[in-house]
């Protein structure tokens, strides 16, 4: 048993620890556990890009494919200065579990390029995007591995990557990537899907603890795509958004912030602010006494150092890995209900799956159909996880892992891997 004083913030070690905890409750064969604790393959690539000033810069990137027993690998591509191989490996493992918990026929994958897209021109960003897709093109494809957007990537970048793959293979291949522009085979509802799926789980969790959505107080760490859309959707359901933050700072108003004005300021690249709002620290936001805390930034926002000061009734992990395992233990002991990332933010990969299915059929659904199908998946999955958690007297994270790992293990056995 790991001690809190030796807490690790390495995401790969965290993912392995979470798998071991669930596997122990399932009494999984140790051979299966050893397979699940490592990606099947990790590709490291270096590729040259001509910069606007005529110089050549070599970029490094990774693509990790954790497990493909159930189906093709699936997972996003992030562009960020702090991308590491261990981070990408961990994220691919979480994607396997995420796909399993909502019953998608996918294994997990993840990719990343070490770069700061904010310092790249549009042309440089396009050349980096196309260069990375060309570098990983041999291991991706509609029936192999289907990437998607992640941190600092977007539909435009996915369109460039899809075009590059299609050119390399001499045929239009929309199914190679999801999160694309609608005109290239993207799905309606995809942009809001991660946030919308998270809100569906929050609604069910609030019912579980007997609290109404109307008037519920919410603090959101991270006002990017998922954070801002979650704020809007929760506000529409009667919640009071009392605090939000982005990389430049945090604002708080006990009477509720004007979400529409915050979005306007974000679009204008202005600091978050509001009439009557006060500036607070990033850590202070996490420790507010609210009904719902929604970490929607990067990993390890809540650790053993600050977990004891968390006062929210529910934590919905819109980001990947915002709580370390030690923090998870602490908030569980405090009676806080944590909706784990692999369930809370699985709306994105669920609608990515819908997009891939539509690409393969060349038949496309309305936004109402997509949102309805997403609601069915998220609500069903929440109750499956919640019921198993009660049966085994465990938390939602371990129950979610148990459901997912059981499905992956069953597929590996059926294929004769173990």
Q: Gist?
A:
By secondary structure, the protein is of the alpha/beta class.
What would your notes on this structure say?
The chain is of the alpha/beta class and 418 residues long. It folds into two domains: 1-38 and 189-345 and 395-418, 3-Layer(aba) Sandwich (Rossmann fold); 39-173, Rossmann fold (3-Layer(aba) Sandwich). The chain has 14 helices and twelve strands. It has helices spanning 11-26, 30-36, 85-101, 122-136, 155-169, 193-209, 225-236, 259-267, 282-286, 325-333, 341-344, 347-361, 367-391, 396-414; strands spanning 41-50, 56-65, 73-80, 107-114, 145-149, 217-221, 240-246, 249-252, 278-280, 292-295, 314-316, 337-339. The strands form two sheets. Strands 9-8-7-6-10-11-12 form a seven-stranded mixed beta sheet, sandwiched between helices. A five-stranded mixed beta sheet has the order 1-2-4-3-5, sandwiched between helices. Helix 7 links the parallel strand 6 (217-221) and strand 7 (240-246). Residues 1-5 have low confidence and may be disordered.
């Amino acid at each position: 048993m790991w001690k809190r004083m030796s807490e690790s913030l390495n995401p790969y070690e965290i993912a392995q620890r979470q798998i071991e905890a669930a596997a122990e409750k399932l009494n999984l064969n140790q051979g299966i556990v050893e397979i699940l604790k490592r990606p099947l393959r990790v590709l490291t690539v270096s590729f040259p890009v001509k910069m606007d000033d005529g110089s050549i810069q070599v970029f490094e990137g990774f693509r990790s494919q954790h497990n493909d027993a159930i189906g093709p690998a699936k997972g996003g591509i992030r562009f960020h200065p702090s991308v590491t191989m261990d981070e990408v490996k961990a994220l691919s493992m979480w994607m396997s579990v995420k796909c399993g918990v909502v019953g998608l026929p996918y294994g997990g994958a993840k990719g990343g390029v070490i770069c700061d897209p904010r310092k790249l021109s549009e042309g440089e960003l396009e050349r980096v995007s196309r260069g990375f897709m060309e570098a990983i093109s041999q291991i991706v494809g509609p029936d192999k591995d289907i990437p998607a957007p992640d941190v600092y990537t977007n539909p435009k970048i996915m369109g460039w990557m899809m075009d590059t793959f299609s050119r390399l293979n001499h045929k239009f291949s929309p199914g190679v990537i999801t999160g694309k522009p609608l005109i290239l085979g993207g799905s309606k509802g995809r942009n809001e899907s991660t946030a919308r799926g998270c809100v569906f789980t929050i609604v069910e969790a609030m019912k579980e603890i007997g609290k109404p959505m109307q008037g519920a107080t919410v603090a959101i760490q991270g006002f990017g795509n998922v954070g801002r859309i979650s704020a809007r959707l929760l506000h529409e359901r009667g919640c009071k958004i009392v605090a939000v933050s982005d990389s430049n700072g945090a604002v708080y108003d006990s009477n509720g912030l004007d979400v529409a004005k915050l979005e306007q300021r974000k679009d204008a690249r202005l600091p978050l602010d509001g009439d009557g709002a006060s500036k607070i620290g990033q850590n202070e936001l996490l420790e507010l006494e609210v009904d719902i805390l929604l970490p929607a930034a990067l990993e390890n926002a809540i650790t053993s150092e600050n977990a004891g000061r968390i006062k929210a009734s529910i934590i919905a992990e819109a980001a990947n890995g915002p709580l370390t395992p030690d923090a998870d233990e602490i908030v569980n002991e405090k009676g806080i209900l944590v909706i784990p990332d692999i369930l809370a933010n699985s709306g994105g990969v669920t609608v990515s799956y819908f997009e891939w299915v539509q690409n393969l059929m060349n038949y496309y659904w309305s936004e109402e159909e997509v949102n309805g199908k997403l609601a069915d998946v998220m609500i069903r999955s929440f109750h499956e996880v919640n019921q198993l958690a009660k049966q085994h007297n465990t938390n939602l994270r371990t129950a979610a892992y148990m459901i997912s790992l059981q499905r992956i293990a069953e597929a590996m056995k059926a294929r004769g891997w173990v």
